[in-house]
Write a structure and sequence with these properties.
single chain, 2 helices, about 55% helix, mainly alpha
Length: about 60
């Protein structure tokens, strides 16, 4: 197995756990955190999704 694949999977796993916790606390479904495994753009895509979507657990949205 090439070293780049192993390094990519390890870094993805290190980013996946915090992303999973953020999605859970925001009231979103956990599979959204799997976006971090998309090569190159995954973590940035997840940040953009979290920044611009409405969170179900947001108390300001319940007014």
């Amino acid at each position: 197995m090439p070293v780049q694949i192993v390094v990519g999977l390890v870094l993805g796993a290190l980013i996946f756990y915090p992303a999973l916790r953020i999605c859970r606390r925001a009231g979103l479904r956990w599979p959204l955190a799997l976006v971090v495994f998309i090569p190159l753009a995954g973590p940035l895509l997840l940040l953009a999704l979290l920044a611009f979507m409405t969170w179900p657990s947001d108390p300001m949205q319940r007014r």
